[in-house]
Amino acid sequence: MADFAKDKSYGVVDPHNVQELTNHLQAMLQGMTDNFGHTSDRITGRIDEMGRRIDELERSVADLMTQAGVEDFRS
After folding, report:
1. Buried-state track 50-68, b at ≥16 Cβ within 10 A, e below 16
2. Phi then psi for 21, rounded to 5 degrees?
3. Among the four 42, 57, 61, 71, which has the fewest Cβ within 10 Å?
4. For the whole prediction, is pTM greater than 0.70?
5. Helices (H), the chain
């Protein structure tokens, strides 16, 4: 990896040339893209799990309504 000098006041990398800046920005953007992808996957997984749990809850309620003798309770 490129040799970066550190800005002592902020701890921000200071590239020495355009190529180092380009490489740093590309790496930073790739990291952000990866992080967004992981977060998106986690959210999608949670939504899918929530959907499965709602389906299970609906089946349980339907079973209870059937056991209670309630006919077509869905509108």
Report:
1. eeeeeeeeeeeeeeeeeee
2. -65, -45
3. 71
4. no
5. 18-67
